[in-house]
């Protein structure tokens, strides 16, 4: 992700193509291993994303989820990943766009991100919760109860209409 940050440094958000950022970051990464990834750009009322594997994002309006990015899986618990030891490449990332995203500001984004990450970590360690991972395991014919302890990253942002758009 540090290579992704370098790829967009100094660029206007409207000029950022998430899939190109993902490809550029991948080509400049020499570290061993592999990873899923999600790159998002928000500019001009438009959200653009490139998502590889079981990373992902939600669009929430008025407290309700209106969009959830789909996961890319080769099979149960086997997400697409890019890296030195993987079979997937950034070109396989799914691209998504959502237009006109408006959220009501209720808390600071960093407070929301921390609370969501803490809740996700707690759920991941529960042994009896009906988690999305437990449901996917059941659908794949695998016996698993509770969450899945995994790396968790949450980034929260509010997309708001500038006051200048309301002037008549």
From TrEMBL:
<dbReference type="InterPro" id="IPR036457">
    <property type="entry name" value="PPM-type-like_dom_sf"/>
</dbReference>
<dbReference type="GO" id="GO:0004722">
    <property type="term" value="F:protein serine/threonine phosphatase activity"/>
</dbReference>
<keyword id="KW-0378">Hydrolase</keyword>
<comment type="similarity">
    <text>Belongs to the PP2C family.</text>
</comment>
<keyword id="KW-0464">Manganese</keyword>
<dbReference type="InterPro" id="IPR039123">
    <property type="entry name" value="PPTC7"/>
</dbReference>
<protein>
    <recommendedName>
        <fullName>Protein phosphatase</fullName>
        <ecNumber>3.1.3.16</ecNumber>
    </recommendedName>
</protein>
<keyword id="KW-0479">Metal-binding</keyword>
<keyword id="KW-0460">Magnesium</keyword>
<dbReference type="GO" id="GO:0046872">
    <property type="term" value="F:metal ion binding"/>
</dbReference>
<feature type="domain" description="PPM-type phosphatase">
    <location>
        <begin position="1"/>
        <end position="159"/>
    </location>
</feature>
<dbReference type="InterPro" id="IPR001932">
    <property type="entry name" value="PPM-type_phosphatase-like_dom"/>
</dbReference>
<keyword id="KW-0904">Protein phosphatase</keyword>
């Amino acid at each position: 992700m540090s290579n992704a940050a370098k790829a967009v440094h100094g660029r206007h958000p409207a000029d950022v193509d998430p899939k190109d950022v993902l490809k550029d970051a991948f080509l400049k990464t020499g570290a061993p291993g592999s990873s899923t990834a999600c790159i998002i750009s928000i500019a001009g009322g438009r959200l653009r994303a490139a998502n590889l594997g079981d990373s992902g994002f939600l669009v929430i309006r008025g407290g309700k989820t209106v969009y959830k990015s789909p996961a890319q899986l080769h099979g149960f618990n086997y997400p697409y990943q890019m890296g030195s030891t993987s079979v997937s490449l950034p070109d396989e990332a799914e691209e998504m766009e959502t237009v006109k995203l408006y959220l009501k500001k209720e808390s600071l984004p960093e407070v929301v991100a921390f609370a969501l990450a803490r809740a996700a970590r707690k759920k991941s360690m529960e042994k009896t919760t009906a988690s999305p991972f437990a449901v996917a395991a059941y659908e794949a014919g695998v016996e698993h109860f509770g969450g899945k302890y995994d790396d968790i990253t949450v980034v929260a942002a509010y997309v708001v209409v500038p006051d200048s758009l309301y002037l008549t």
